[in-house]
Design a protein that fits this description.
Number of domains: 4
Shape: elongated
Strand order of the largest sheet: 2-1-3-4-5
Helix content: 40-55%
Strand content: 15-25%
Length: 560
């Protein structure tokens, strides 16, 4: 009787494929030779996980194809160990193909051929499939537990490419006696004199406010080798993109916690997901997923020289989290730009326009292709987030009213004009009358829209109201504007207590008015520098029940 032999070995547990094949086929021959059987064909999968279904294993797929061939050279199939051949429910999905083509399947566990009509044989094979799955899970658990302990307690380097900025050096004999006897050596990380300064520079510039793409562009312009160019032997698959730095490489360096001097493991995991949810028989495929940082395994003590402090690394991660996209949608009517019309481009001097990205306000300056001759060094687009400027701007404003600067600031604001309180009441009465006339004009226009037949009579009222409004405006223009004295401004500021907190909690519309009243003008430079100027203008402020006019910072309520 002619047999085809099938076996499988996985390199995950570092077995020798030749030795594994030899003992599996020996066991198979011990089963079939007493019955006069002979192995005439072999199908042996190397490096294929047992969880992969037969149609996706190269040699197993060839065996299934040969079952239906009219010129196949075997009459039956023998398996040396069913746990290596079948995993989970694979036997139930595969054996019907053998039955269909009339090919027997022999396994040592049943002492010969599997009887398609025997419930006992089916139960035995299903049991071995479950045992195979359990064995794989136990091996995985043992290996992961051992690796976690080696990192946490020993700070051991577990292999792989060294991070950019480090190199591998000898750390003595291998901890495993068997591997040490074979001459294998342990390795540890050591700063690379050529690349470690680049890592420190990347962290320093990013914490200084520079963006990922700007850092990558500068490194490329200075001909500093990128990670794949610095270690081409370990990164041949990346050289196709050229030696230029990518912003993704810069981000990967900034996110790597091993630059803090600690060994970190379990940052990623392998998840098995169904290839097709509508065809479970196709099995699963492996997908690498990022673990939550709380699941990372850190060594208890530093295991190598640090390139940055842990505080610096944490500060970088905090900035990444603040930049993370938000997937909520903000209606256009709710979008406010606090610095609209008040932020200039440091390259060309033009005002930057507001744009809404990732559910937050940005400002950008785009250079047209026709203007590149006038501004050859201007990037195509310069972006800056509003929340990268406003908190520091508020702190700067608060600094103007700090104790050491308060007297000078208040004197400067008060010097904008001499106080004149004699006509204040009259000027306020005129302004109130103008606001009342505006309301009357609105009501007249509403009447005209709703009752066109009354247009002639209402038109006369509109003309009379406009005439009186122009007279009052002319009269108001002759009234000198009054302002708060330096002492009054100082008392107003003192009532606000913490101006920084007040600005942070203020309504966006109110804060925008404050910037307008202070004449704030911001110049943003592409290298991260921000220049702020303030040119206060005459404004009207309301404090409690008393209305006064002043210059400069003048919130509408003491609470803001």
């Amino acid at each position: 009787m002619r047999f085809a032999f099938y076996g499988r070995v996985s390199t995950e547990d570092q077995q020798d494929p030749r030795a594994s094949r030899n003992w599996q086929i020996t066991r198979a021959r011990q089963l079939i030779e007493p019955a006069g059987g002979e192995v005439v064909a072999e199908f042996f999968d190397i490096g294929q996980s047992r969880s992969i279904p037969w149609p996706r294993r190269p040699q197993a797929a060839k065996l299934l194809e040969a079952l239906g061939s009219s010129d196949r050279c075997f009459d039956a199939v023998v398996i040396g160990e069913p746990q290596r051949a079948f995993y989970g429910n694979q036997f139930g999905l595969t054996f019907p193909v053998f039955v269909h083509y009339g090919v027997q399947l022999w396994v040592p566990e049943v002492g010969g051929a599997i009887d398609p009509g025997s419930d006992a044989h089916e139960i035995v094979m299903s049991l071995y499939g479950g045992m195979s799955k359990g064995e794989r899970n136990r091996i995985r658990t043992r290996v992961r537990s051992a690796m976690a302990a080696q990192v946490a307690m020993e700070g051991r380097f577990l292999g792989g490419r060294p991070p950019y900025g480090y190199r591998l050096v000898d750390a003595g004999p291998h901890p495993n006696p068997g591997k040490a006897a074979a001459g294998q050596r342990a390795r540890r990380l050591e700063p690379n004199p050529a690349t470690a300064p680049v890592v420190r520079r990347i962290f320093r510039e990013y914490l200084g406010g520079k963006g990922l793409r700007a850092i990558a562009k500068d490194l490329t312009a200075e001909d500093i080798p990128c990670p794949s160019a610095a270690d081409p032997d370990r990164n041949p698959h990346r050289l196709a993109n050229g030696p230029a730095w990518k912003h993704t490489a810069v981000r990967a360096i900034l996110e790597n916690p091993r630059y803090t001097g600690y060994q970190v493991w379990n940052k990623q995991r392998r998840d098995e997901v169904l290839i097709d949810v509508h065809d479970v028989a196709l099995g699963h495929q492996t997908r690498m997923r990022w673990n939550d940082p709380s699941d990372w395994i850190w060594s208890e003590q530093p295991s190598h020289d640090a390139l940055v402090t842990r505080e610096e690394w944490e500060a970088v991660q905090t900035r990444f989290r603040s930049n993370k996209r938000r997937y909520t949608r903000t209606p256009k009517g709710d979008r406010r730009y606090l610095l609209a019309g008040r932020i200039l481009c440091g390259r060309c001097g033009r005002r930057m326009e507001g744009t809404w990205n990732h559910d937050r306000p940005y400002y950008r300056c785009q250079i047209h292709r026709d203007d590149t001759a006038d501004h050859p060094d201007h990037p195509a687009t310069i972006y800056v987030r509003e929340d990268a400027i406003v908190p520091r701007l508020d702190s700067w404003v608060a600094g103007l009213f700090a104790d050491e600067h308060l007297d000078d600031t208040c004197a400067t604001l008060a010097a904008a004009a001499q106080p004149d309180t004699d006509q204040e009441v009259e000027a306020r009465r005129i302004r109130d009358r103008i606001r009342q006339l505006d309301k009357e004009l609105d009501s007249y226009r509403t009447i005209v829209r709703n009752e066109p037949e009354a247009a002639s009579a209402v038109g006369r009222w509109i003309a009379e109201t406009n005439q009186e409004r122009r007279r009052l405006e002319a009269l108001l223009g002759k009234k000198p504007t009054t302002r708060l004295a330096a002492e009054d401004i100082k008392a107003l500021v003192a009532s606000l207590k913490d101006i920084t907190a007040a600005l942070a909690a203020a309504d966006p519309a109110d804060k925008a008015k404050v910037y307008a009243e202070m004449g704030i003008e911001v110049t943003y430079h592409h290298d991260g520098r921000v220049v702020v100027e303030s040119r206060p203008r005459v404004v009207e402020s309301s404090v409690g029940e008393r209305t006064r006019t002043s210059t400069g910072y003048s919130p509408t309520r003491p609470s803001t």
